[in-house]
């Protein structure tokens, strides 16, 4: 009988069990970010095209080697982009007249670019990207001297903005 | 103007067939001409929930293969409502016995004759599901406040949208508001926020569902059942989309308040017994 009373008071205090509703909601939110992106590659493809359009206004990039993916960390999903930068423009191209894009099929001729000694090999850069914690997720652009053949790494956290469904989902 | 709805969910066992039977009975009870199409070929059950299992002669596959004279020969009239009909699924065939194009043609034929066509979709997202959605104008998704059911519902919404079926509404089935209040079940707002589709209605968990399915009659006919009450409201909203949404909240709060009162009362009783 005392157990019943004890349980009743615990219930009144609202302390008796953890809030699994919030846990369920958060797990669902994260898994759906992943589901939706993998189920609809067109969505990621159109994001990639839009990103390319904006970035090429500021930098010349090797769009053929651009990588875009969602990475899962504990309790959050990050949009990770690896975009090799060839050159940075002195002044951005105005948005009204978008910069001429580099065709994906066109091989980027790196031979005429001066080969910087301090440039990291591609593998090393990738490794660094995957080990970067999401907390340090801001645009980590490389210094200009290294920029000529290195990658600019952009990470954007999508934790807060993820819930909305894209209406034009194909 | 007649409408063709598909009742679907992705996950099995969330209440698609029960919802189809009840919405059909509800629409018929307000005088609409309704046909229920059981598209779950090989696993037919809608006949059982309506108590019509002994009257089946021809089925959906017979109609599509033209083994009977038109669909009218296969239709079974409901025992309770003059204007409610069932087109049963085949039990011995499998889901490949039907082609999507045939289903679409049949739905277009049915819509000429009836105010509402409700298609009971099989679980899953394979061929049977595709056949069931192809002829529909709108989709009603049934889900439970449970992560696996909501995830599957999201997948189904994605497929429906990619098939240009963007009129989608949601019924949340088997909600236990006392668990939501205690923080142990997803709420309607949680589910609506995650799936971002319109909520057509909320059906509370109700033991009377089992009671009525045992007897083969729709729970919507039971005036004292909370689930039946919820289905009656959904039917109103289906018939008239302008029907106010406050009803959901009211019934939810009412249920919760009565539950808390019950809890208090039973605890007081226990305390009294213990004292005496």
Task: Summarize the topology.
The complex is a heterodimer of chains A (170) and B (276).
Chain A: H1 2-13, H2 20-39, H3 41-55, E1 59-61, E2 67-73, E3 76-88, H4 122-131, H5 144-147, E4 151-157
Antiparallel strand pairs in A: 1-3, 2-3, 3-4
Chain B: E1 3-8, H1 16-29, E2 34-38, H2 46-49, H3 60-64, E3 76-77, E4 84-87, H4 100-113, E5 116-120, H5 127-134, E6 138-143, H6 147-162, E7 168-175, H7 177-181, H8 188-195, E8 198-204, H9 208-215, H10 226-239, H11 246-275
Parallel strand pairs in B: 1-5, 1-6, 2-4, 2-5, 6-7, 7-8
Antiparallel strand pairs in B: 3-4
Helix pairs in contact in B: 1-10, 4-5
The coarse silhouette of chain B is globular
Stretches of chain B where pLDDT is under 50 for at least 5 consecutive residues are: 247-253
Amino- and carboxy-terminal Cα gap of chain B: 67 Å
Strand percentage of chain B lies at 15-25%
Quick one: CATH superfamily of chain B? Answer: P-loop containing nucleotide triphosphate hydrolases
Determine the N-to-C terminus distance of chain A: 59 Å
Mean of residue pLDDT values of chain A:
64
- Over all CA atoms, what is the radius of gyration of chain A? 23 Å
User: What structural category characterises the helix and strand content of chain B?
Assistant: alpha/beta
Write out the strand line-up for the largest beta sheet of chain B, numbering strands in chain order.
3-4-2-5-1-6-7-8
Going by CATH, the architecture of chain B would be 3-Layer(aba) Sandwich
Oligomer: heterodimer
Q: What's the number of helices of chain B?
A: 11
Main sheet properties of chain B: 8 strands, mixed
Number of helices of chain A: 5
Shape assignment of chain A = elongated
């Amino acid at each position: 009988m005392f157990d019943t009373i004890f349980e009743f008071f615990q219930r009144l205090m609202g302390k008796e069990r953890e809030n699994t509703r919030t846990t369920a909601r958060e797990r669902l939110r994260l898994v759906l970010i992943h589901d939706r992106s993998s189920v609809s590659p067109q969505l990621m493809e159109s994001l990639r095209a839009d990103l390319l359009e904006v970035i090429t206004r500021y930098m010349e990039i090797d769009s053929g080697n651009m990588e875009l993916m969602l990475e899962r960390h504990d309790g959050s999903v990050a949009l990770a982009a690896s975009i090799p930068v060839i050159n940075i423009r002195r002044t951005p191209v105005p948005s009204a007249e978008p910069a001429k894009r580099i065709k994906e099929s066109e091989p980027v001729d790196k031979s005429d670019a001066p080969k910087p000694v301090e440039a990291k090999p591609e593998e090393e850069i990738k490794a660094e990207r995957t080990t970067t914690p999401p907390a340090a997720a801001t645009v980590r652009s490389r210094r200009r001297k290294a920029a000529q053949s290195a990658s600019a790494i952009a990470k954007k956290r999508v934790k807060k903005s993820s819930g909305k469904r894209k209406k034009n989902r194909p | 103007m007649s409408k063709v709805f598909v009742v679907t969910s992705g996950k099995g066992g969330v209440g698609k067939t029960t919802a189809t039977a009840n919405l059909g009975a509800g629409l018929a009870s307000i005088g609409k001409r309704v046909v229920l199409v059981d598209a779950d070929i090989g696993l037919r059950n809608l006949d059982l929930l309506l108590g019509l299992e002994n009257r089946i002669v021809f089925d959906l596959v017979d109609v599509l293969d033209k083994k009977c004279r038109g669909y009218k020969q296969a239709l079974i009239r409901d025992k309770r409502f003059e204007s409610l009909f069932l087109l049963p699924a085949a039990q011995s065939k499998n889901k490949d016995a039907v082609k999507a194009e045939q289903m679409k043609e049949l739905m277009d034929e049915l819509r000429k004759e009836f105010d509402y066509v409700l298609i009971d979709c099989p679980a899953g997202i394979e061929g049977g599901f595709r056949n069931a959605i192809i002829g529909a104008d709108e989709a009603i998704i049934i889900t439970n406040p449970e992560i696996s059911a909501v995830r599957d519902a999201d997948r189904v919404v994605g497929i429906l949208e990619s098939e240009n079926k963007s009129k989608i509404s949601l019924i949340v089935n088997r909600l236990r508001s006392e668990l939501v209040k205690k923080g142990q079940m997803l709420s309607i707002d949680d589910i609506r926020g995650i799936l971002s589709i319109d909520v057509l209605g909320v059906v509370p968990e109700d033991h009377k569902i089992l009671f009525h399915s045992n007897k083969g009659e729709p729970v919507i006919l039971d005036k004292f059942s909370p689930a039946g009450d919820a289905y009656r409201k959904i039917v109103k909203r289906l018939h008239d989309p302008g029907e106010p949404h406050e009803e959901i909240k009211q019934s939810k709060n009412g249920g919760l308040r009565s539950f808390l009162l019950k809890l208090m009362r039973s605890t007081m009783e226990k305390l009294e017994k213990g004292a005496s």
